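Q: Structure tokens for this one, please.
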Amino acid sequence: MTDVLDWHSVKTVVLHGEVSGEAGKDEQDVLVQVEVVFQALSELGYDPVIVPLSLNLTEIIVRLQAIRPAFVFNLVESITGQGRLIYIAPAIMDFLKIPYTGSRTEAMFLTSHKLLAKKILRTTGIATPPWLSLDEIFTGSLLEGPYIIKSVWEDASVGLDEDSVIFARSRDHLCQEMVSRLGNLGGDCFAEMFIEGREFNLSLLAGDNGPEVLPPTEIRFDGYPPNKNRVVGYRAKWDEDSFEYHHTPRCFDFPKKDEPLLRNLVELTRRCWHLFRLQGYARVDFRVDQADMPWVLEVNANPCLSPDSGFVAAAAQSGLEFNQIIERIIKNAVTEGL
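A: Here is the predicted structure, written as tokens:
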């Protein structure tokens, strides 16, 4: 019997961001996660209650106080469609002193603000592509080469596709391109040097002996024409009718010559876990350039747990079934998060 089993038959909450009827597929996906986590908790003997989170914070606080859950399984990825509000969910649980799964408020804020995360990575010697924010565009270094314009706060490749890659003719040109895309990027964006090369995702799951780095995943760009930018954008993730969706498969098999690169990726992933004091589960995304140098793109403190997600696929490569993933996340919350 594990420590987790001591918590069975108690009330728990599955907390998620409220999803409107007009929400895109990236937002709606959280409802899939809610369903499978609810089922897993039930099968593990818990008594889960699903609670959506909106900006009516008084209502949610009153409801959580009434339920008095033993812990909250936190699946909040956004509130009212805004990724910048993601840290509010763990902050509420901190305020109520309710245990919750996943990373703490501070880690959630620092990793969801991509510019803050990149500054922290750079100051600790972990390579991340150079960037310019709108505030820096007329004072920072404008480097020669392609840039990719990304959201500061949103994940799930919101507003991102191959036409997000541009060659900046001037600072004014780059500024105009960024401003014109703000509406599709959650209202705040930055331009990051585009790294030509391979894309990797490395997932981490808390364990008895610290974080376990799950088998590395490469997102391949199969059959891409030479002049097509290799970007894992919104269509690749969510548009089942698109070329990108069907030509970006996950790969877990690597030739022997990749072993030094994979060891490097695993080490960097562990460093990110400790640097941001992550908990429960996480994922680190990399681009690897032509010289086999890894560049950290993002650190995701609450990656998707849908059955078809990269995290669940990587865990399956380690022989873990879905309920085992959930048990380990809960155990980490119980042993480390209280």
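A few notes: Confidence is low (pLDDT under 50) at residues 1-5. The longest helix spans residues 25-43.
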